[in-house]
């Protein structure tokens, strides 16, 4: 028996706990970028398989945890679609400018 398909609202509810900022428009955007391609019901509604939900979860995780651009994520997904493992991703920490770090960078170094 095939796995049940979910509506976009059901997918949203499933992922909302792990990704509180997810929205229906974000899911639709990722589809428009070619990263997801859920089935369509005869009525035109999107129907997501468990594979689609796992794929979406992967996209959202590497965006959130590794700050990867969609172009790189697409390359990872293409590799996964070919049966390859996705490339390893390095954990990066974004550089955030704060008044303290700005003041530190403005101080002269060396001679005192």
Q: Biggest β-sheet: count, sense, barrel?
A: 2 strands, antiparallel
Helix % is: 40-55%
H-E string: HHEEHHH
Q: What is the number of beta strands?
A: 2
The assigned structural class equals mainly alpha
N-to-C CA distance: 75 Å
Low-confidence stretches: none
* Rounded Rg: 20 Å
- Lateral arrangement of strands in the main beta sheet: 1-2
Strand content: under 5%
Task: Please explain how this structure is put together.
- The protein has 112 residues and is mainly alpha-helical.
- The chain has five helices and two strands, in the order H-H-E-E-H-H-H.
- It has helices spanning 8-15, 24-32, 50-66, 70-81, 99-106; strands at 39-40, 46-47.
- A two-stranded antiparallel sheet has the order 1-2.
- The longest helix has 17 residues, at 50-66.
Outline the fold blueprint.
Blueprint: H1 8-15, H2 24-32, E1 39-40, E2 46-47, H3 50-66, H4 70-81, H5 99-106
Q: Top keywords for this entry?
A:
mainly alpha, two-stranded antiparallel sheet, 112 residues
Summarize the structure.
It contains 5 helices and 2 strands.
